[in-house]
Design a protein that fits this description.
By secondary structure, the chain is α/β, with parallel strands linked by helices. It is built from twelve helices and seven strands. Helices cover 46% and strands 15% of the residues. A seven-stranded mixed β-sheet has the order 3-2-1-4-5-7-6, with helices on both faces. The relative contact order is 0.14.
Amino acid sequence: MKEEQASSTAFTVVQGILYTARRSDLRGLVDDEMVKACHKILAASQEGQRRLRQLNSFWFRGIARVLERLTLPGITVHYVLRKKFIEDYVLESVAKGATQVINLGAGFDTLAYRLSQENPEVNFIEIDHPATHKVKVEALSGPDTPKDNLHFIPVDFAKQKLEDVLRESSAFDKDRSTVCIVEGVLMYLDISDVSHLFQALKELIHAPVRCVFTAVEPMSEHPKSFGPLLKLYLGMKGEPMNWTCLCRDMPAFVEKQGYVLGMVADADEFKRRYLSSDYKGFLHRGEYGVTVERL
């Protein structure tokens, strides 16, 4: 990602959600509030407006299907499924007493924005690169945006450490029971940085901590889920994949970090939860969801 530009991946994920929302065979998978929030974010920038025009183009929709098969087959539906999994876990955590939600590398995710309006007693914090945050904050600024319980903290992790940023922020409360979201981020980090992140959260928060995150398996495990143009695409965007972890190795990784494993949810679990039993579309199997906690 270029220093002065919002993440291209952030735009792509939101565009993919809106693309999925328009599919007749997946009607209802994306609720109206998410659609409105995603549209609001894209409409606020030139790049986002270009993405919206593409969604309205018959030719682009045809090209998009081909491009997806050549890069990450099934990824647009997967974006929606992983977000539903994360939202369900966050809501469950709040119901169990969590009063703080921290989204690390939030991109253009709309969860905190939507839930902060429905849960004024919960403290929501989003952390991401300054250029990405700038676009999002400008898009969501308005009378309907919560001012007291929704906080945006711009962070350049090339120059700043998470623990330093949170300790210095008045928005962060170390004594609140917290659920942390790390979606589509860990694969870009080195293993040492992944471990450091989980250790930092344990040291920073002096209350129960829950985490929901996504992890990627090696491409060789699911060759049909990684198209031939993916490596070229990641190289062009400057976002190579560094950390991968097999599903079967995740319990040992979680234990090593000092957490208790909750659930590992793969494509089949996503389908069981959110899709009809007769759904025939291709399911992306390269990435899975994980929940952990430290009491």
